[in-house]
User: Which sequence fits this backbone?
């Protein structure tokens, strides 16, 4: 971590060396729902526990380390003119973090990629079998399509292969990078050929392959008859209003949503129409939280 920052000269005297961060007088603000966080960081300094939704700039005026979950927005409004020099999120996703702001202000950052991947993939499998029992379909007859072959998607793929369920994969960035031996197909192929589609992409709004509203009105209308759609990635990966509109005319579709747009103020109409609804808990396991 850097010793000085030009836009915060009034804090520079406290950062003469990187080793100063290890002194016991360091103040650490942490989300109280991160398991064992006080035990893990107590040797580095004073740990202040707060509800994640209530962490504000006034709490950080003498804080150098901030540890959060997805409920805390990390941005200029929260961090400007504070001595914070490290932000960690005990989550895979980073869409609640303004990474560009952290980079431009020399604030170190780390997330917990893969911490809950096993739990999330198991959760999707559990949902699949719960719905098959409730609705009376044979999950082994499905052709699956996984969108996003990262930590969760790759684990889900292995589980589906073990179960003998044919599975197609879509991951444009990984396909273009040519770092995987897997064969990838276009999203349109997944939509047209698969009757079980599970989404496991990060939420991005820019770049060559943005995932915001990856499934929009057109994509949703193209889903095969009786298709099972699962979103355990991020809510806005699916256009929720478009999904609601589609379900009004396509009662054959089976939808399992663990993530929603505008959490926690989700669409109650959509909640009433999906086949299985859970409150963003796919990766919420003791194992996953401890790994975070």
Assistant:
């Amino acid at each position: 971590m850097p010793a000085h920052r030009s836009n915060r000269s009034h804090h520079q005297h406290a950062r003469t060396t990187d080793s100063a961060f290890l002194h016991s007088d360091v103040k650490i603000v942490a989300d109280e729902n991160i398991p064992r966080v006080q035990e893990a960081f107590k040797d580095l300094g004073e740990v202040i526990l707060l509800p994640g939704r209530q962490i504000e700039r006034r709490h950080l005026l003498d804080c150098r380390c901030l540890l959060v979950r997805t409920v805390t927005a990390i941005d200029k409004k929260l961090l400007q003119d504070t001595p914070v020099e490290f932000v960690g999120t005990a989550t895979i996703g980073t869409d609640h973090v303004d990474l560009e702001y952290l980079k431009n202000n020399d604030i170190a950052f780390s997330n917990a990629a893969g911490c809950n991947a096993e739990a999330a993939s198991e959760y999707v499998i559990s949902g699949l079998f719960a719905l098959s029992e409730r609705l009376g379909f044979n999950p082994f007859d499905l052709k699956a399509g996984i969108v996003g072959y990262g930590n969760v998607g790759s684990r889900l793929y292995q589980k589906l292969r073990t179960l003998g369920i044919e599975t197609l994969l879509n991951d444009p960035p990984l396909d273009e990078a040519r770092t995987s031996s897997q064969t990838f197909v276009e999203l349109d192929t997944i939509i047209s050929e698969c009757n079980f589609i599970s989404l496991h992409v990060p939420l991005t709004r820019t770049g060559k392959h943005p995932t915001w509203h990856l499934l929009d009105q057109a994509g949703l209308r193209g889903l095969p008859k009786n298709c099972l759609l699962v979103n355990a990635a991020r809510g806005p990966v699916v256009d929720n209003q478009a999904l609601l509109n589609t379900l009004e005319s396509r009662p054959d579709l089976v939808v399992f949503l663990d993530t929603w747009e505008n959490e926690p103020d989700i669409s109650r109409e959509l909640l009433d129409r999906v086949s299985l609804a859970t409150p963003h808990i796919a990766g919420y396991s003791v194992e996953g939280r401890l790994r975070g």
